[in-house]
Amino acid sequence: xxxxxxxxxxxxxxxxxxxxxxxxxxxxSLGRSDAQDVCQDIFLTLLEGQRQFNDREHERxxxxxCAINACKDLLKSSRFRRTAPLEEAERFPAPEPExxxxxWQAVGALPPxxxxxxxxxxxxxxxxxxxxxxxGCSYAxxxxxxxxxxxxxxxxxxxQHHG
Length: 163
Description:
Elements: E1 2-3, H1 10-27, H2 32-49, E2 52-53, H3 56-76, H4 78-82, H5 101-108, H6 112-123, H7 128-135, H8 139-162
Antiparallel strand pairs: 1-2
């Protein structure tokens, strides 16, 4: 049983979850400051709610689901709809190995619903059924989105390297 009751768990939270949360935010095209706010809000939610988790996987799934929900809420907020983020020109992809840079640029160009599935499935290692649940869609919709995303990425790769 994992409990979130001690403020000293901040270091573990940052070490284990800051990068995945920031990546989820990047998948939703949020700016750096919004992503950092989401990360901080999730940490406070964990501490204030004194959550208990069965294991690390349960904890990780909960935290990523919180990040997805926070991103969706932020994108629906009137502040976000009325304003353009200052960092629009400065997308902040998490550091990647140099050879993967082109792939992540192509992933970044995908629609957000496809982008988040690619991230959860390939980067976080969730199965399609679990990723669908985390995104709030059916298994069939997630499978279709993932198929479309793969097709778009394959086409982009062929244009870049064979065109």
